[in-house]
UniProtKB/TrEMBL annotation:
It comes from the Bacteria. This is GIY-YIG nuclease family protein. It comes from Paracoccus methylovorus.
């Protein structure tokens, strides 16, 4: 089966709405039903759903390991096939011991997509009747027939993310192109680390600064002299970038936090990609002079260094209109 960004969700594609306890398609590549009633529901749905079909998911859980910002939000959607199987065939082993009687009657998801955090929809706003139908949506799933709702879900900015498959291996690119002195060249007009569909290519970009919270001395294996580790970049979704960096690290005492974004710091996001690149280049050049480059877009810096470079970057570029 071959699908592309332009044809996998057409006007003819069936759309199912359901809830998950969390949103981790990289380890949970399935939608499933529980018990004999659930098995019957799956069989009946397959008679009327296209193959593949879209499953739109919102998050309901209050569990401590779930991002609280996802609670009640439509987190993303999956492209689901009619391939049936047991839940554990389509999920990472970390899930196999949890709730062993739940969602055994499953279908395989082959692709997954997350809505950008800055554009996520509140489930109750899209489905006002959810207060009385939530139990059915959670247990059985609800087929969406309203074309206006489908178009809203399809047009809300999303990115493709990993969908669990036991055959997929994690391969990283170790090659890194840098300029003299650690001023890393800006990337191409994309989000880096994930794919943005062409239809969302005109989204405004934010310059952002992430900070690694934790014992910096321990992380470096030497004294940080009161400085912290920062990541500089630009993105249509800084929070998605933060999440991706966090997921790349083992769980532990170190956490990436967003300390600055253009739109969150009294500036406007960059509607022109060239302006965003110019501002990013300025902040990096400033940090090369006053901070310690740690490779890539990472710097060991004081808060004052970041503040000075941040304002220099925005003062030197007229947002939306090129350099002053």
């Amino acid at each position: 089966m071959t699908t592309s960004e332009t044809d996998f969700w057409t006007d003819e594609t069936s759309v199912l709405f359901t809830s998950f306890w969390g949103w981790t398609p990289e380890t949970w590549g399935t939608v499933g039903w529980s018990g004999d009633r659930g098995k019957t529901r799956r069989a009946n749905l397959l008679k009327g759903l296209t193959d593949p079909f879209i499953t739109v998911c919102y998050v309901t859980s209050n569990k401590t390991y779930i991002d609280p910002k996802l609670k009640g939000m439509i987190a993303g959607f999956m492209l689901v096939t009619h391939e049936t199987g047991d839940r554990d065939e389509f999920t990472h082993p970390i899930h196999h011991a949890r709730d062993p009687d739940q969602w055994r009657h499953s279908l395989r998801a082959v692709r997954a997509f997350s809505y950008l955090p800055e554009y996520r929809l509140r489930a109750q706003d899209v489905f006002p009747e959810l207060s009385r139908t939530a139990r059915h949506v959670s247990a059985m799933g609800e087929v969406i027939a309203d074309s206006a709702v489908i178009n809203l879900l399809r047009q809300t900015p999303w990115i493709e993310v990993a969908a669990y498959s036991p055959a997929i291996m994690d391969v990283s690119n170790a090659n890194e192109e840098v300029t003299a002195g650690g001023a890393v060249r800006p990337g191409p007009d994309n989000e880096g680390g994930y794919s943005v569909p062409p239809r969302f290519g005109k989204l405004a970009r934010d310059l952002y600064v992430l900070k690694l919270e934790g014992n910096t001395n321990a992380y470096l294996g030497r004294s940080a002299e009161g400085r912290a580790i920062y990541k500089i970049g630009l993105s249509a979704s800084p929070d998605m970038r933060r999440q991706l960096f966090q997921k790349s690290m083992p769980r532990g005492a170190f956490q990436w936090v967003t300390v600055r974004t253009s739109s969150g710091s009294g500036f406007s996001a960059f509607n022109c990609f060239a302006d965003a690149v110019a501002a990013e280049s300025i902040i990096k050049k400033q940090l090369v002079e006053c901070a310690e480059w740690l490779g890539g877009e990472f710097y060991l810096a004081n808060e004052d260094d970041i503040e000075t470079a941040w304002h220099a970057a925005h003062a030197s570029v007229h947002i939306g209109g090129g350099k002053v």
